[in-house]
Prior knowledge:
This protein is an all-alpha fold.
Amino acid sequence: xxxxxxxxxxxRSFRIxxxxxxxxxxxxxxxxxxxxxxxxxxxxxxxNNQTPVDPSVQYEEMENRISELEASLSENKExxxxxxxxxxxxxxxxxxxxxxxxxxxxxxxxxxxxxxxYEAALELDPENVPLMLQAASTAASIGNTEKGEELYKQAxxxxxxSAEAKMYYGNFLLYAKSDFQGAREQLEKALELNxxxxxxxxxxxxLEQADQLEAAQKEADSxxxxxxx
Length: 229
């Protein structure tokens, strides 16, 4: 399991990585030889060992937040920040429902709405790379890997000196596309940029995972070939 995922500090970074995890779970892109560990959101009550919040209450609160943002958007249609917040609200609800084992079709519909709002925000703020990474990961989470890769490539082109952008793109190539060589290229380029220690640790873990997954894939292919002889 990728312990580095649990060490992600920012909510934005956690959201991006969690999105890719949802992508793998929702569209079945990963084989039995690999496991993606996704931590669930924790409420303050859970952190204090109190009774967990009723999911229906959480969903209602999240829906209310969405309604508030949609009302705000009606007055600020050209505000990319409001659109991004609305996208985040839809994503948080969809992801929480998915992790709770709720209606998967409804959860994916919420993630679709998240992507629509992210893309609308990008039309108004086309060089916002953090937002572009969120949109890319959300696209992957609903199985639209073509859109996801398109957005990742744009992010890397816009910020060629961003180790994080290359790390997230490499992460996507590794898990969503099983492109081991492509993933290594992005991750190694990220290391060449001398990233901060936490980012470097994450990249090192991904490179190690790429080696393990590729070895497992080769072994599985070899066993399959033997079975067909």
